[in-house]
Each structure stands twice: as C-alpha cells, then as structure tokens.
C-alpha cells in the first residue's frame, strides 16, 4: 500500500506517544477535494473507520481512508525537519503534478501529460 521511511516511522511513533494515542489509532491519511491543485492531503490522529486500511511498522501506525486508497497506492510517507519545512510529506506516484507547497495534487490521467499551470507554483497554497 504505502511505504514509511525510517524518519517517518520514528517521527510518527514519537507523535503517537506524545499524544497518548490509543493503540487502535494512527495517523489517518485521506484525500479531499481542495487545495490549489484539486485534491488535498489530510492527516490526523484517528481510529480506523469501516473499509480503511491499517499499516503498522515499528510502533508507527498509519490508517488509510477507504475512499483514498487508490489515490495513495504506492506512495511514500516521509518526515522533513528543517527550519522552513517540517512535517510529514507524501511522495505520490499517482500525482500528475503537485502544488509548490506539496499539500495538494492533481491526479494523473492515463495517457495525458499535464501542462504547466502557474497557479501551482506555490504562491497560491493554503
């Protein structure tokens, strides 16, 4: 389903411990309409819902929303910790392109190459 980098596993395990999250919850990843590229990633600590997929690696727990599984298939969850860009990051092979801030994406359409869109250069990010 998705891959967690070593940095993501450590950061997520620490986050779940800091939040005293129950062992039945994890970082719930979902896709919603919105953002400057059409679809936006959402992340929150939550219990799985019916149909969700569950992944656990070295104490890091991830829940993939049932309606987002196809959009996230083959993705990698990483963690960045720099002065100007900290947090969980998703590298998504199903994205034709992402906005400049990386919080939203346009899904790839089979046989179609996306054209440059200046609205996705990061200046319009939420």
Characterize the structure shown.
The protein has 126 residues and is mainly β. The chain has one domain (3-108): Sandwich (Hypothetical Protein Aq_1857, Chain: A). Helices cover 13% and strands 38% of the residues. The chain is built from two helices and nine strands. The chain has helices at 6-18, 69-72; strands spanning 3-4, 26-33, 39-46, 53-57, 60-64, 76-81, 86-91, 95-98, 104-107. A hairpin with a 4-residue loop joins strand 6 and strand 7. It is globular, with a radius of gyration of 15 Å. The relative contact order is 0.22. Mean pLDDT is 81; it is low at 111-126.
Low-confidence stretches: 111-126
The number of helical segments is: 2
What is the distance, rounded to the nearest whole angstrom, between the alpha carbons of the first and last residues? 28 Å
Mean pLDDT metric: 81
The overall strand count is: 9
Task: Write the CATH fold name.
Answer: Hypothetical Protein Aq_1857, Chain: A
Looking at how many chains there are and whether they match, the oligomeric state comes to single chain
């Amino acid at each position: 389903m998705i891959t967690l980098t070593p940095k993501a596993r450590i950061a997520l395990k620490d986050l779940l411990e800091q939040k005293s999250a129950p062992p039945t919850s994890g970082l719930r990843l979902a896709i919603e309409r919105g953002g400057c590229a059409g679809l936006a990633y959402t992340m929150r600590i939550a219990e799985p819902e019916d149909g969700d997929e569950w992944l656990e690696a070295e104490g890091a727990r991830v829940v993939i929303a049932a309606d987002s599984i196809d959009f996230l298939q083959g993705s990698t969850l990483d963690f960045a910790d720099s002065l100007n860009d900290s947090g969980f990051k998703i590298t998504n092979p199903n994205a034709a392109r992402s906005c400049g801030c990386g919080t939203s994406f346009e899904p790839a359409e089979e046989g179609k190459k996306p054209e440059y869109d200046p609205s996705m250069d990061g200046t319009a990010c939420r």
